[in-house]
Amino acid sequence: MKTMTAVAVLGLALGIMATTGQALITIDTVQIGDPGNADDSTGYGGVSYVYNVGTYEVNLNQYTAFLNAVAATDTYSLYNTSMGMDLNIAGISRSGSSGSFIYSVIGSGSRPVTYVNWFDAARFANWMANGQPTGAQGNSTTENGAYSLLGATSGVGFTKNAINPNTGTTTTWWIPSQNEWYKAAYYDPTKGGTGGYWLYPTQSDSAPGNTVGSGANQANYYKNKYSVTQSATFDPNQNYLTDGGAFSGSVSYYGTFDQGGNVWEWNDAVILGDRRGIRGGSWDGLDGASYESDLRSDFGGSIDPTFEDGGFGFRVASIPEPSTALLVLMGGAVYWLVRRKKVTL
After folding, report:
1. In CA terms, which of 20, 88, 119, 185 is 20 to 30 Å from 220?
2. Ranges of residues in the chain whose predicted pLDDT is under 70
3. Could you tell me which of 334, 185, 167, 234 has the C-alpha nearest to residue 146?
């Protein structure tokens, strides 16, 4: 028989609350249920398990916290200087010198982060899966966890770890697979009475408009004019991103926002042998054209995983959270252990 002090048990029970001196970020998620749904006619969307996915794209506040936690030196270039210099998406500024870099949000931090490649997204997922630690970019922070990157900055030979090597437990955060992303965006178990897929991630089979606000079936994409300005004229000084949830009446069935428009989102799919999947379209466009096809369920793109651009971001997926009742029971157990001083295991 082995004994543990109450302090040790409390530390074990609350181990995910990293005592780094930096407040942990929160990522809102929605649960994607209805396991075992069939694929769409495109061959995508069938998922046999319950999972969570980010309600919104990873935003500037969240990514800035990540940078301040692990990128004082920024060994693997998690920061792109265009994050601060490109006024169409700005963004995040960086001050100081290597070894003491400090990052700050420019404007509304609820807008999605851009100029992130697939590896940046994977390192963010690792950081989340590892409990949001603070420190240099190494195996316990960004290089292992959800993905065993181990310093890699190119290639596609990286799949999600079922078990996080750092924790010895099921991986808790990752980049959505193509099926996970697709189901969250387009599936509706009530459609047609038996379940089906929408053509757009706004619970619609008709092309969305692009007016910001509470109207139904709207998205931030170029539809003969930019959504934010409602003008066809491109302005190099205009920020074209919208806050997560700005299109409040245009939610997917499960409750996600902006899976159509705002920014293209990386997924986990390896396509054509050397590319990663992207879906959803973005704010960007060209005068005299409409880009609604980018938002459709029957359009999926791919690109080199090192590509970075002002129209590219990501969201994350996670395991379903414990119920509130379970958390209350856990809290009561910790309290009882503290009162008892020690517990025999």
Report:
1. 119
2. 1-22, 287-288, 322-345
3. 167
